[in-house]
Design goal:
Elements (H helix, E strand, L loop, with lengths): L10 E4 L7 H6 L4 E6 L3 H5 L1 H11 L3 E5 L8 H13 L4 E6 L1 H13 L7 H5 L10 E5 L11 E6 L4 E6 L7 E4 L9 H19 L6 H22 L5 H14 L14 H13 L3 H32 L5 H14 L16 H10 L11 H11 L1
The protein binds 5,6-dihydroxy-NADP and zinc ion.
The site of zinc ion (ZN) has 6 residues, from helix 7.
Length: 380
């Protein structure tokens, strides 16, 4: 095993009808709330009205920033930070999926400063203070609710980057699986794929940690058992609950204990597809993962075979394992080639250039420019 530090300060509220505790939680931080949300799902579901009525009846002073887009952009982060600064907010309430919560993490460290939130991604600035963040998660996928990471795009710079600091953990996250009942089939599948991919990124990381490997396998098996059931029955609370719990556990630090790094090469390559073609995050991963395993098989064949054998409870070769994993992604309706997304204007050269510009790489399985081209050819 590798040495490791386990630290996770997020208070997680999980289960049915937990939102009545929201007001008292926000009050711990003050009275002026910045509510941040996405393009419209919270209005459609009635959650926006419910929260607004609740907060106003409890005397909160609420300002808001709506319209955070999927694959969020730095312009929204900076604009929301201006509002937060003008209203001198005491606390941020993020209501939505990973895009809203990630944006809110960067908003929380941008409000106290005078520069763009992008400076944190480039390393030009380090956050010294954060406005406390409380999150209500409406989509099970990223694990952002219980980790410090935020992923944001900057189209001017042609980059999609991740940032995290001990200051960017949410203080509290509320996870009521009922709030995910309205997530459509495609994003439900992408969420299942994302949590599986997070587990794989840990699996292909550095450090022999057999207990942690078992955590990883348990999480993926849970997703592979209940994911397809959920896809066939989107309004089933029990399946929503299982997937929501699995997604949180897949990226809250637990799968990294005893490892010095995860791999994250597939995420790094997937972000390019989201950046250039707005491919939903989970879909980008099911496109890249099979190609990545096929390409790097000579280096990690035993580890792929072990993964497949553990997941499917039979001895499988690396090739068989990749085929089975790819078939699983397809079975829940995820793309496994970029062409499955029916996007026009895809250019091999632009993907390649962006991979070079963004220095796509893995923490354990290192990639060079030759690998980029080979990967693209496998998933195009
Ligand atoms: O914008 P609205 O209208 O809210 O609609 C969203 C969006 O269209 C919709 N949605 C969310 N909750 C819903 C719902 N629709 C109906 N009912 C609900 N209850 O779903 C769409 C996707 O939302 P988004 O937040 O973009 O999805 P996700 O949670 O998958 O987040 C993706 C982002 O997270 C980043 C990704 O790169 C991507 O930018 N990631 C963040 C990570 C982290 N912070 O740890 C790790 C991940 O690997 C990932 O990189
Ligand atoms: Zn992910």
């Amino acid at each position: 095993m590798e040495n490791f530090i386990a630290y996770n300060p997020v208070t997680l509220h999980f289960g049915k009808n937990i939102l009545p505790a929201l007001g008292a939680t926000l009050k711990e931080y003050g009275n002026r709330v910045l509510l941040v949300y996405g393009k419209g799902s919270v209005r459609k579901s009635g959650l926006y009205d419910q929260i607004m009525n609740d907060l106003k009846s409890q005397g909160f002073d609420v300002s808001e920033y709506g319209g955070i887009r999927s694959n969020p952009v730095i312009e929204d982060v900076d604009a929301a930070a201006v509002i937060g600064r003008e209203h001198a907010v005491d606390v941020i309430l993020a209501v939505g999926g990973g895009s809203v919560i990630d944006s809110s993490k960067i908003i929380s460290v941008t409000i106290p400063v005078a520069h763009s939130g992008w400076d944190f991604f480039t390393g030009k600035a380090k956050p010294a203070r954060a406005i406390p963040l409380v999150a209500i998660l409406t989509l099970a996928a990223t694990g952002t609710e219980m980790n410090p990471f935020a992923v944001v795009s900057n189209h001017t710079q042609g980059e999609k980057s991740a940032f995290g600091s001990p200051l960017t953990f949410p203080k509290h996250s509320f996870l009521d699986p009922q709030l995910t009942l309205t997530v459509p089939r495609d994003y439900t599948a992408y969420g299942i794929a994302d949590l599986i991919a997070h587990s794989f990124e840990a699996w292909f990381g550095t450090g022999e940690a057999t207990l942690t490997d078992r955590f990883v396998i348990s999480i993926v098996k849970e997703a592979m058992e209940y994911g397809p059931k959920l896809i066939g029955d989107l309004h089933n609370y029990e399946y929503r609950e299982k997937i929501m719990f699995a997604a949180t556990m897949a990226l809250n630090g637990m799968t990294m204990y005893g490892r010095s790094t995860g791999d994250w090469g597939v995420h790094s390559a997937g972000h390019i597809l989201s950046l250039l073609h707005d491919v939903p995050h989970g879909a980008s991963l099911t496109i890249v993962y099979p190609a990545w395993m096929r390409h790097f098989k000579p280096k990690i064949s035993d580890r792929i075979a072990q993964l497949g054998s553990e997941l499917f409870d039979q001895t499988l070769s690396a090739d068989q394992s990749i085929d089975r994993i790819e078939a699983f992604f397809k079975s829940i309706g995820c793309p496994t080639r970029l062409s499955d997304m029916n996007i026009s204007g895809v250019s091999r050269q632009s993907v390649l250039s962006s991979m070079i510009h963004n220095k796509v790489n893995g923490g354990t399985v290192k990639m060079k420019e030759d690998d980029y081209g080979a990967l693209i050819d496998l998933y195009l």
